[in-house]
Design brief:
3-stranded antiparallel β-sheet; about 0% helix; 50S ribosomal protein L40e; ribosomal protein; Ribosomal_zn-bd; Ribosomal_eL40_sf; Ribosomal_eL40_dom
Length: about 40
């Protein structure tokens, strides 16, 4: 759902299964930081 990849170069949001950035073509993507909420 909200699992996204963030481009390390241009900070664009990409799909979680993306291999490279849709905006700049950069291959270094990081998972978007999500808070782990305590139940």
């Amino acid at each position: 759902m909200l699992d996204r990849q963030i481009c390390m170069r241009c900070n664009a949001r990409n799909a979680s299964e993306a291999e490279r950035c849709r905006k700049c073509g950069y291959t270094n993507l990081r998972p978007k930081a999500t808070e782990r909420r305590a139940a």
